[in-house]
Amino acid sequence: MPSPPTKNLETFDNPEPGRDYVIRIRVPEFTCLCPKTGQPDFAELTIEYIPEAKCVELKSLKLYVWSFRDEGGFHEAMTNRILGDLVAATAPRFMRLTADFNVRGGIYTKVIAEHRAPGWQAPPPVQLP
């Protein structure tokens, strides 16, 4: 029997909490409904984060993303809601969610939302010769 969609995001302990490292997750099949027309909206989500104590478990993320399939919402609201849920579950040092929605009526929409933990600052970029 297949797993049902759920809003429950599971986590696991960060295996390297003393190091800043980036986890990048690509979700190419996000689907929700347009709140005006009820037609499906499709997007590719990219989640980039620097974990603190917890990392998001990928199967639970898949089921969480799936739970939006029959839910209506504006692109901006969906993006910020998903970021808020991920931040609440993982409390990362930094997280960015990019939602790149497919064309609708000749218009593409990309929404980028970020979270930074209080006091956390990005390290300076490394310049190699």
UniProtKB/TrEMBL annotation:
Catalytic residues of the enzyme: 34, 41
InterPro entries given in the database record: GTP-CH-I_C/QueF, NADPH_dep_7-cyano-7-deazaG_red, QueF, QueF_type1
Binding-site list for substrate: 56-58, 75-76
E.C. numbers: 1.7.1.13
Catalysed reactions, semicolon-separated: 7-aminomethyl-7-carbaguanine + 2 NADP(+) = 7-cyano-7-carbaguanine + 2 NADPH + 3 H(+)
UniProt keyword list: Cytoplasm, NADP, Oxidoreductase, Queuosine biosynthesis
Compartments in which it is found: Cytoplasm
Pathway: tRNA modification; tRNA-queuosine biosynthesis
Function comment: Catalyzes the NADPH-dependent reduction of 7-cyano-7-deazaguanine (preQ0) to 7-aminomethyl-7-deazaguanine (preQ1).
NCBIfam families from the UniProt entry: QueF-II
Family (UniProt): Belongs to the GTP cyclohydrolase I family. QueF type 1 subfamily.
Name of the protein in its database record: NADPH-dependent 7-cyano-7-deazaguanine reductase
Protein's organism: Thiohalocapsa halophila
